[in-house]
Amino acid sequence: QVQLEESGGGLVQTGGSLRLFCAASGRTFSNYNMGWFRQPPGKEREFVAAITRSASSTSYADSVKGRFTISRDNAKNTVYLQMNSLKPEDTAVYYCAARFYGVADYQYWGQGTQVSVSS
Q: Which letter does DSSP use for residue 90 in this model?
C-alpha cells in the first residue's frame, strides 16, 4: 500500500506559478512510476504529466507542454509539479498517482489539491 498526499495548491492569477508537492509513504518510492492528473469543474479527470521511477523519462499532456514540469526526489519520497504561465483553464483539482513499475494502471491516488486560476 502506498499513501499519497498532495499539497501546494491555491489561488493564483493568470500568468502566475504554483508548485505542487506529492509526498509518498508506505512502500519503496523508487519502485513506482508517478503521475499527475487533474479534474476541472464539471469534467472528467485527465492526464497531466508522468515520470518514470528513475526520472529517466517524462511525458506531458499537450495542453501543459512547455509550461509544466514534473520531477521527483526519491530520497525525499516526493514528486513535484512546477506549473508556470497558468491559465484559467488550468483550474482543477490536481491528483497525484502511483503505479508499480510494469503495471499499466495507476493503483494509488491522493486526495487532491485545488488549483484555481483567476482571469
A: G
> DSSP per residue over 21-73, as a string?
EEEEESS-GGGEEEEEEEE-TTS--EEEEEE-TTSS-EEE-TTTTTTEEEEEE
Query: 31-52 pLDDT, tens per residue?
Result: 999 999 999 999 999 999 999 9
Backbone angles phi, psi at 106, to 5 degrees: -70, 130
Report pLDDT digits (tens) over 51-86.
Answer: 999 999 999 999 999 999 999 999 999 999 999 999
Burial label for 12, CB within 10 Å (0-12, 13-18, 19+), is middle
What are the φ/ψ torsions at residue 85 (nearest 5 degrees)? Answer: 50, 50
